[in-house]
Specification:
Layout: H1 27-42, H2 47-54, H3 58-66, H4 73-82
Helix pairs in contact: 1-3, 2-3
Length: 95
Amino acid sequence: MAKANKKQAKAKPAAKTRPVGPRTAGSVDAKIGALIRERRLAIGVSQMRLAEALGITFQQIQKYEKGVNRVAASTLMRVARTLECKVTDLLPDEA
C-alpha cells in the first residue's frame, strides 16, 4: 500500500470582526468615502497630497475612502475646502 503524501490542512485563524456600535463606520460612511474619492480623482489630487493638506496620513485617507473609518464633521469640512467643493457634495443623497 503506497503512502499518500498529504499535506495537513492548517486551521485558519478566525476572521477578524469589527466591533459594531454607534460609533462604528457603516454604509453611509462608505458612501461618503466613495464621494470623497470620486471628487479627489476628478480634480487630480492624490491621496498623499490630500493627506498632507489635512495633516494626516494617506493611510487615513484610504480608510475614509473605503468606509472603514468615519469622517468627523470638522474633517469633512476641511476635506471639502481642500477639494474645492461644498460639504453637501460629499454627502450621499440618501442614507
